[in-house]
Design a protein that fits this description.
Two copies of one chain form a homodimer. Chain A contains twelve helices and twelve strands. In chain A, the strands form two sheets. A ten-stranded mixed sheet of chain A has the order 2-1-3-12-11-4-5-10-8-9, sandwiched between helices. Chain A is globular, with a radius of gyration of 20 Å. Chain A has 377 residues and is of the alpha/beta class. Chains A and B meet through strand 6, strand 7, helix 7, helix 8 and helix 9 of A and strand 6, strand 7, helix 7, helix 8 and helix 9 of B. Strand 7 of chain A pairs antiparallel with strand 7 of chain B. Bound molecules: 3-isopropylmalic acid (2 copies).
């Protein structure tokens, strides 16, 4: 039996409620399987860690994360630790990403079930068939470049941040995008997004993406969009960006959030943040496996509904599926979860259970949704 | 009779076709009015200027723009002068903005006529009543900070850009947003957008916006959104951002384009880029008047349909209305144009002419639309 260590970081707000359901799903898979054993351990992280020990990413948590095969996170933050606090939950997340080298953020925006089309803010004709995977560079760019705060140094009354990229940083994220494109048959198209008509870092981005794909993955289709024009396309005609959106940290932050509202509820969507450097050799092995990975739903800690047991656990459960796929290499279990989620959501007419949590206009509770998915599995 | 000099920069692609109609509208107003005389002169700009004299912003054009009361532009750019060309049309636009000090970009996203709701990619229930004015800082931030290209200097294999803001830069754009908010009755809410949980320049932004409004415009409502969350809201629930969106250059580039697809066609929307510094004293005078202004439709040069006479001239005609409002101080003529445009677009059932150009799914030509608006005026 192969043993995997998975660290669980429930975090703040609804985090503990939604991770509880995803943990049950992982436990059931571990129990049912002949050949794997998933060992789960819970650690403090985010605002609750600030309250408990004064910092969002305690050393013990970081150590556990470094030693684990993968990390499942809930959500962090809340008004209690607002923008003006000295120590903030988000700093813990940014530090964790950097410490583990999680440079590849993967965020699908698609319909877990066709029956959710009615929930989209877009017209059904516009939203139907949208199937986008955003691959966002996560530990470079303006997030981690040099910066100067107001009131310090020379130029007291100014503040600045540096948006910086190097060739190897862009190469490795391009390769991750390529590996993900190759996992589909036929391979997905790659849409690289930048602001090359203004920014030097974007001109580097465009050049390196183009050369890396031409040289190492000539079979993949590539096009380029300016970020302003991509932000329009995501609303006006998102199917045009079906496939992989490949972009830098800040643009990825904005565009992945923008595209994630298409499926109608943030509660539905998972994410993965991966380390591990696919080299040219990996091009021969589409089953790219991450050396470290953090998996979390894309929604926030939703303090307004925390503690009520009504949050949608699907984003976290689908994050657990991504964990099985990318970190543990267990594609068949990942698909089993995705199918179970689809069945829980599908209309009765399509043979599903038509469960709807509050975010989807229903009254099904967090635990009921978890129960049903576990039952289907 | 008061005389105004207006420079017209038709530019590239459909630019000459759409400016021709807006020029007719300005001419009719000038001819009909007892007290004003608008003198129009045309100059070379953009790709066509590159072809003619080797640079996108010839000295004669810049001089004319500097001496004019206002500038009406069509659109620039095209595949002929692509991202890899040495001299590019967009450089001319960026230089013109900087040279004239056009720091305040104003972009409304609303429905020129209720009958256009059906054209929105958003569900009617989501799009109805959206009425947003984006106020974007236009000559600061990462557009004009120091940068380093790939292959130069130390760190040969890296490239960077600097996102930089100073206190006075943020103060003046905040005041423009406030003046615009005060032009409505009751005053509009101000939604300031930044990424203060990551960026130093955004922390400065948030602090200065808050302090300026608290001190100088305490009657205005202000809230703050992170740029990722704002990009979601614009799709999921845009009415929540009704009022003024106040943001920095790059975020404004992305968010103004994103919100501009709500009304269903880019062909409908105008923009203004203003210089002139409203001081604290102006707070007493809501009729803020720009010292220099560039007005242009938000759409591009659309090379695919150029020369066919089918482009929608409304974005440019409404830009002429903004020109009358902000640069010439002729509010009543601005409103007359806006009413004429509404009438041309309104359903027959609502007493309108229901004209639809190709972008709106119809077959009305550029000139026919111009004819009708001139006729109504
Ligand atoms: C919390 C914040 C720093 C973070 C980011 O901007 O990366 C979040 O928006 C995300 O996308 O995970
Ligand atoms: C052409 C380009 C440089 C410009 C910008 O990014 O400002 C355009 O997108 C705009 O918004 O006017």
């Amino acid at each position: 039996k192969k043993t995997f260590r998975v660290v669980v970081l429930p975090g703040d707000g609804i985090g503990p409620e939604v991770t509880a359901e995803a943990v049950r799903v992982l436990e059931i898979i571990s129990a049912a399987s002949q050949d794997i054993d998933i060992k789960l351990e819970t650690h403090q992280f985010g605002g609750s860690a600030i309250d408990a020990v004064g910092e969002p990413l305690p050393a013990a948590t970081l150590k556990a994360c470094q030693e684990a095969d993968a990390i499942l996170m809930g959500s962090i933050g809340g008004p209690k630790w607002g923008v003006n606090s000295k120590v903030r939950p988000e700093q813990g997340l940014l530090s964790l990403r950097k410490a583990l080298g999680l440079y590849a953020n993967i965020r699908p925006a698609n319909f877990a079930s066709k029956s959710l089309l009615a929930n989209s803010p877009l017209k059904p004709t516009v939203a139907e068939g949208v199937d986008i995977i955003v691959v966002r560079e996560l530990i470079g760019g303006v997030y981690f470049g040099a910066r100067k705060e107001l009131g310090t140094g020379p130029d007291e009354d100014a503040a600045w941040d540096t948006m910086v990229y190097s060739i190897p940083e862009v190469q490795r994220i391009t390769r991750v995008a390529a590996q993900i494109a190759l996992q589909a048959n036929p391979p997905l198209a790659i849409h690289s997004i930048d602001k090359a008509n203004v920014l030097a870092s974007s001109r580097l981005w465009r050049k390196v993406v183009t050369e890396t794909l031409e040289k190492e993955y000539p079979q993949l289709k590539l096009d380029h969009h300016l970020v302003d024009s991509a932000s329009m396309l995501i609303v006006a005609n998102p199917r045009k960006l079906n496939g992989v959106i490949l972009t830098e940290n800040l643009f990825g932050d904005i565009l992945s959030d923008e595209s994630s509202v298409i499926p109608g509820s943030l509660g539905l969507l998972p994410s993965a943040s991966l380390a591990g450097a696919p080299s040219v050799a990996d091009a021969l092995d589409p089953a790219f496996k991450a050396t470290s990975g953090l998996y979390e739903p894309i929604h926030g800690s939703a303090p307004d509904i925390a503690g009520q047991g009504i949050a949608n656990p699907i984003g976290t459960i689908l994050s657990a599926a991504m964990l099985l796929r990318y970190s543990l290499g267990l594609e068949k279990y990942a698909q089993a979860i995705e199918n179970a989620v689809r069945k829980a959501l599908d209309d009765k007419a399509a043979g599903g259970h038509e469960l709807r949590t509050a975010d989807l206009g229903g009254s099904v509770k967090t635990k009921e949704m978890g129960d049903k998915i576990v039952e289907i599995l």
